[in-house]
Amino acid sequence: MAKTERIELRAEPEREQRIRYAAKLAGQSLTDFMLDAASSRAEEVIASSQTTVVPADFFDALWEALDQPAAADDENLTRAFRRPRRVKQA
After folding, report:
1. Does residue 43 contact residue 33 with C-beta atoms inside 8 Å?
2. Does any domain span residue 20?
3. d(Cα 60, Cα 38) in Å, to the nearest integer?
4. How far, in whole angstroms, is CA 30 from its chain's centroid?
């Protein structure tokens, strides 16, 4: 794939030298090193935005509740199932 976009940034001299040194140690160009690092961080941020983390005790209680049969006479549940579904996708 052809590289067609440009990303520019500014950095403090010490930070820039450290990044250049790391790229050299990794055997990569500065551009490749920075793109790999930024892409990896981008994937982490995207994944964390699509994941919900809850405490273990909350998850266990939820899992246990889901294993329980629904009460046949639960009017709130019956009404909830009759409402039209709204689906929102990101």
Report:
1. no
2. yes
3. 36
4. 26
CA-based R_g, the chain, Å:
25
Residue 70's closest CA among 62, 78, 60? 78
Tell me if 31 is assigned to some domain.
Answer: yes
Say if residues 23 and 30 touch (Cβ distance below 8 Å): yes
The count of structural domains within the chain is 1
Q: Is residue 90 part of a domain?
A: no
Q: Which residue has the higher pLDDT, 60 or 86?
A: 60
In a domain? residue 30: yes
Q: Which domain holds residue 73?
A: 13-82
pTM for this model (two decimals): 0.57
Among 32, 9, 11, 12, smallest CA distance to 22 is for 32
To which residue do tokens 């009017």 refer? 75
Cα torsion 53, 56, 62, 67: sign: positive
